[in-house]
RNA sequence: GGCGAAGUAGCUCAGCUGGUUAGAGCGGUGGAAUCAUAAUCCAUAGGUCGGGGGUUCAAGUCCCUCCUUCGCUACCA
């Protein structure tokens, strides 16, 4: 294979179990990765956990367990989420691994060699929870005269020796890079924000801490640990081999796209590129900041008690149902809203009623009337060709174009459009009525539908991998045509002539019911 | 305060560089069909495209202004 495609999610900070936002990001990234594989590209998909930092250390201490043990436990939940949601990762990287420490120290040495690191003192109001310093002016007065950060977290006056990175030096190089690579930041609104931020001037960045030791040691300064972001971002390259000159590293870097949440755009579009420039490493081709998922239009938060467990949700509605809903109902890049009603409505309408039912009625007719043998084609009519045109246009032109553009919801909209065309076709042709009047025509109609359904199933593989695969299995579609290139080739007649028979068709997408408690709430 | 995004049918939203009667899905209504997961198909419902002003032969689609929501950022020190 050639044409490598390297995609990553953000490296999650596992100070709690994964929530729906983590799941959303993983699912979206997975759909893109799967799509690219089905386009024949050599894909590497990396995710992982960012386990350093004071917060982890403190949480562990609070629980009375070793920090590493907490990290192991929490990281497991994220790894487990990937398994449960059918996330097709190639690498799960952890910042606590030995190799990652080595990689982080290697990049540190490169920054140092470029003359971009210097030792200084840092003092100011520090928030442990945010792991950030704030200006006096940014603080607000809390209860009892305590000082609070803009995020409402407590701050303490802290003085520490710190290594600094000459971020200021990269202001112009970054702006030049943005100008030369208009697709580097997406969507557009995030790009504008970043450019204005950089134009406003960059201050050097404190990149080490001495107040705790749960992190990567700074080479030559054992009492310092590296700033969590420098360490975390390095995961994108350490996960594929850096600093070793491995085959993966040579093949996959620079990354095709980093998929991240809109809240951490700056780290990925300002700090990360600056670090890489300093280290003499090529920059990723694109950073995409997706939106947030709101619960019934409200921001998720622990205090509101509306934090949703994605595993529970998948258990309730099905993994593919959840995946489909998130990618279909939320325009990628914008905020989206989630509710049980919305999932049930969308999934029933699209997957159960339209697509699932289409497959079921077609396969049932074949199963009952031909003992499962695939019907022969006795010459196609204009109606057949018109349907082929619609489905083929969707499957080999529109859907790939939208996926390529990371517009999953639009890809699925085109997919549904083609599904509608199939349902309209089956109603007009009424193969069940042709049984007595024109059995040969009945065969052709069902064969036509069979082909179209297979094409649509392949196009849906990135989003609903489990159920699409099950359908293709039921239909006996050979593995080697289950991709965007081959599914529009002539595989049907050979399959029919091979003597393949479909078994009694099994429904793919059961109609969902609104959970009882939700009905009451609504 | 500055910059930016958004405000389009009951709901969720499409509408690129301005141009025939403003679109889709869901919901609602009226038909058809009965192979299928009571699923499907057809027709339809008449929305001042946030308000106002302007440019143009022609504006959701460009300009100005106002209102609302949101994001980034700054400041009041």
Walkthrough of the structure:
- The protein has 522 residues and is an alpha/beta fold.
- The chain folds into 2 domains: 4-116 and 166-290, HUPs (Rossmann fold), CATH 3.40.50.620; 339-497, Isoleucyl-tRNA Synthetase, Domain 1 (Orthogonal Bundle).
- The protein has 20 helices and 17 strands.
- Strands 3-2-1-14-15-9 form a 6-stranded parallel beta sheet, with helices on both faces. A 4-stranded antiparallel beta sheet has the order 5-4-8-10.
- Strand 4 (117-127) and strand 5 (132-134) form a beta hairpin.
- Helix 4 (98-113) packs across helix 10 (265-279).
- It is elongated, with a radius of gyration of 27 Å.
- The model has no long low-confidence stretch (mean pLDDT 90).
- It binds one RNA strand of 77 nucleotides through residues 136-137, 188-190, 192-194, 196-197, 200, 262, 265-266, 329, 331, 334-335, 337, 342, 345-346, 348-350, 352-354, 356-365, 368-369, 409-410, 413, 416-417, 420, 423-424, 426-428, 430-433, 435, 505, 507-511.
